[in-house]
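Action item from last week, closing it out:
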Amino acid sequence: MHVAVGIVRDTLGRVLITRRADDAHQGGLWEFPGGKLEPGEEPQTALIRELHEELGIEVLAARSLLQVHHEYPDKHVLLDVWWVDRYRGQPYSMEDQPFDWLFPEQLSERAFPAADNPIITALQKTSDQ
């Protein structure tokens, strides 16, 4: 499964996270916004589409941060992770998922899917510099 993931930050440097629906794979855990690529879709196109659908924002500029390959017992995921450098609009939950803004060093206080651990590590290293 190929997923585009957006790292959306506010002016204070906090990162936006959302909570997965209880009935979803890895339900109840926190994650970074994004979603599955449609057949033939490019990762950046999926990122723009998913963040508009989930958060009501228009991505104006994004750049690749990293890729994460992770094997769960029931599926393989490839996360294409993007810094969202500029966006238009105020993020809100279009799908009624809870969301929160956290500083990178606070991310370890929440439960995330294992595939997100390399993202959290990268964000915490970046914020230390």
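Closing note: The CA atoms of residues 22 and 28 lie 5 Å apart.
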